[in-house]
Amino acid sequence: MKLRTTLKRVYFPVLLATILLSLTFRIAAIFANYNFKTGFFENKILINIASVIVIAGAVFTFTYVFTGSKKNKLIADFSTPATYVPTGALSVAMIFFAALTFIQSSKTGFSIREFMALPGATYTLLFKYIANNMSAFVLKLMGPMAILSVGYFILNACVLKRGSSLRAFFGTANVLFLAFYTSFLYFDTATLARNAPNKIVDQMAFLFAALFFLYEIRISLGREKWNLYLAFGFIAAILTAYSSIPSLVVYFVDGHVISNNIQENVLSFALFVFILSRILLAAFLKEDKESESISAIREYSRERKEYIKEKEELARKAYMELYQDIRDDFEAFVDEDINAVQLSLNETIDTNESLNGEFAETALFVSDEVALEIEPVQNAESAPEFIQETILFPEETEAFADNEENSLAEDSTEEASDSKDEASDNA
Predict the structure, then answer these.
(1) Is-contact 181 206, C-beta < 8 A?
(2) Fewer CB within 10 A of the terminal residue: the chain, N end or C end?
(3) Cβ contacts of 289-292, under 8 Å, gap ≥ 24
(4) What pTM was computed for the model?
């Protein structure tokens, strides 16, 4: 796979080359130029070369954040013996270091309860007291975190499954322990000066180890960030090796302690072995079984979503077909009613038009007759016969009218005389 190829051919060779070259130059610089009394290098050429190599290697390996996969399934198989050895070694180192921490904290004489019991003690003075004794205060906090950190590494060896909320809880304690110890190294000036180069290297080693374990916790919670996990793993491996191995070499060869204490160097070396094994397993071991299960669940979920989507599409299509059928039937029914109403309306209009036609003809005839009687006739030849006689022979018409009037008068006189005769006879 592309992920394995990138890790094997690019990042792991750079990682190993950075570790080997930086260790070589730092060990040479310590034996040649380091002043064991002051804690500083008298000649800085070799140590500067070693520092440049470390910085360049750390910057390059950090680019895995941008080039690496965020969903790497090739994480360590927790059931393999390859995880037991470094986990066990780190657990043992953590147990001894926790015991040493408790012993040192008990010898500091630092007690907030005793200070607050003193006359005139205030919270302002308490803050000053803590600031003046910060290393002892941090050492008190480190004790419980160191014990819980041991539980984290034991769970790493015993709990085979990757997801574990209990392991995540103890892992948080481990991160806090490493962060507290980094603070302790900064505030403790009894052994080395605050700006001593060896102290700065040790602080960076524990700080980046804490960041690496922070992403180990995300694995236990199922919120992996594989690119960041491996990137910080590369840097933590470089720094823990650069911090611990030269110090152990000098201690076993010359008997000098160039760090805060030799137990710190043992713990740092155990961290290096553990972190290196983790990032090596990420590239060279088989695909994690839990990842296969998660992939199967995701594949089933994807198929289920596609099935539901297909059924929804079929249901929507059936609904649209039913809706279209109902709409077509309704439109056909409405069209039939509209056609019937239109036909009835047309018949009514035709009937009204026929009646209106007859009425118009009658009115025209009557108006024509009235017009003939009232208006003077312009064309006598087209007038009725009795009107033509009146128009053409007016004198004869008047004589005829006089004769008719005289005859009516005579008739009335005769009737009157007859009435008188009958009256006389009766008398």
Answers:
(1) yes
(2) C
(3) 289/77, 290/161, 290/162, 290/163, 291/73, 291/75, 292/73
(4) 0.61
